[in-house]
Amino acid sequence: MELVIEQEALADALMLPMRCISKKSPLPICTKVSLRAAGGVLTVVGTDLVRRGESAVKDVEILSPGECCVEASTFAAVARKMPKGPVTLRVEKYALTIKAGRTKSTLPTVPFEDFPRVNELERPSEGAWSSVAVEALRDVLAARYCMSTDEARAHMAGIHLSTSAGMVIAQASDGHRGARFESDDPDAKFGAFLLPLLALHDVLAIVEAAAGRVEVSCGSGVAWWRASTSAGALTLVHQLAENHFPPLDAIIAQATRNAPRATKIDREATASAVGRCKITTMEKSEGIVLTLEGDELRLRSDSPDRGTTQDAVQVIGTTEPTTEPIGMSATYLRETLDAHVTDEVDLNTGDGLAPVMVRSPGRLSLIMPQRG
């Protein structure tokens, strides 16, 4: 195998495959990437046997087709450090030579046939793919702020994705808060599935690199993603978590009934006030207290060690103001407000035990109150 490729294109081509490699894998072959040059395309693949990331680069001058496997971390480090400009890759016997100008590195290789063929023979048919707008995916995946990061709770350590009535819908929850974000895309039509935490950032990488729409196909316990990029194409396949996601729609419906009071607030002003109050919260609970009094939303935090902070935000509009205090995590409230992007949001409250809801167009979040 011998080819010439631009240094930046080579470094970029390694990003997705490298994300799908586990540094702690007990299988030496899973710490490597496979390289294959054929038909004017260089294909780079990495896998941890749960995920498989593939990058295809088209702008390559192939002098001699071929394939090999090489240690991923070393190869990626060499590729990043090579001088900008054309880089020559040449495989001779069991060695890969990377040369750019006066810089030359030689790395050992293993046979291409030893590389795992994870789901390689199970690619979906063309009719099984559904295209999704990059903007829609970027919008709804912002719900990831409230998903669980505890992989022992697989049903919460991920984002539930679905489509309905021309909308792409994402739901996430860690048990203490939840979010349902949706975005218009009449052409997106795929079945509901739970995108696991392990693959979430790989999908985000594809979304950010995509030059157009992203395609998705799911079934038989796996999900496929692919997108065209300025340099070629990216493909990701990953196993799906069991879809036992909590019934968030029913929880939201009940919370709506229990939180009838609507208050419109300035999002950034409220987020800043929450940040100031967080400074004097108790380290473990980070609890603050909200009280709606007339045309003000008052915030307070108390800590025996850190002191007390009081703040207030002028509300824009309210119905049935209440003075009953509501306790909640300052971090949860701040992250929720940051996940909404409009200047104003609706704050729905009930009694001190009802979830607090934050609404803006296409985005709905709820936070469970703290007790005691």
Structural class estimated from helices and strands: alpha+beta
Write the CATH homologous superfamily of the largest domain. DNA Polymerase III, subunit A, domain 2
| Share of helix, binned | 10-25%
CATH fold-type name of the largest domain: DNA Polymerase III, Chain A, domain 2
**Strand sequence of the main sheet, in spatial order?**
5-1-7-8-9-6-2-3-4-17-16-15-10
Largest sheet: 13 strands, antiparallel
Low-confidence stretches: none
**Gross geometry:** elongated
Number of helices: 8
**Whole-angstrom Rg:** 25 Å
Question: How many β-strand stretches?
Answer: 26
Number of domains: 3
Distance N to C terminus: 68 Å
- Please tell me the overall pLDDT: 91
Quickly give the CATH architecture of the largest domain: Roll
Q: What percent strand?
A: 35-45%
CATH class term of the largest domain = Alpha Beta
Task: Summarize the SSE layout with pairings.
Layout: E1 2-6, H1 7-13, H2 15-19, E2 32-38, E3 41-47, E4 51-57, E5 61-64, E6 66-71, H3 72-81, E7 86-92, E8 95-100, E9 103-110, E10 130-132, H4 134-140, E11 158-164, E12 167-173, E13 177-184, E14 193-196, H5 197-209, E15 214-219, E16 222-228, E17 232-239, H6 248-258, E18 261-266, H7 267-278, E19 287-293, E20 296-303, E21 307-314, E22 317-318, E23 326-329, H8 330-339, E24 344-349, E25 356-360, E26 363-367
Antiparallel strand pairs: 1-5, 1-7, 2-3, 2-6, 3-4, 4-17, 6-9, 7-8, 8-9, 10-15, 11-12, 11-14, 12-13, 13-26, 15-16, 16-17, 18-22, 18-24, 19-20, 19-23, 20-21, 24-25, 25-26
Helix pairs in contact: 7-8
